[in-house]
Fold this sequence. Notes:
- This protein has helices at about 1-20, 30-40, 55-70, 90-95, 120-125, and strands at about 75-80, 85, 100-105, 110-115, 130-135.
- By secondary structure, the protein is of the alpha+beta class.
- It has a 5-stranded mixed beta sheet.
Amino acid sequence: SPTTESRYMVATQRLNESFWTERIVERQCYGHLLPILEAKLDEGLNVSVGGTPGIGKTIFGLFLLRRFVQRKQSVVYWNGIQATFFTQNEKYIKLFGLDQQTQELCGETWHWGAWKPTLEALSEFLLFDGIFVIHDPAED
Length: 140
């Protein structure tokens, strides 16, 4: 439908802009949240950041996306409309057929793919070692 397609295009444009901007919001509370989040992820646990509308969950998700890419970690960013997978891992590039789709992100060449997944299909990424999934609740 036209509404879904336009939302898809807006989401894609917004995601691309998050990598091309020099201005990144790093709120003071991130200094408190990041060590907790990273410790849980290092333990192999899934982490959820929740809260009332308007507190900055979407901006924090984009901040984390860029942080994972800067650290060369494979990541899926799902905004409720599309999932976008970024990786430099040769195994995942072959497995997901991403060898033709590349983009320069944070000074490095990344392979990527985007699609409109079901929640069940998206959750399967959690079974892979070293792939982080960021879900932006603002678009649901």
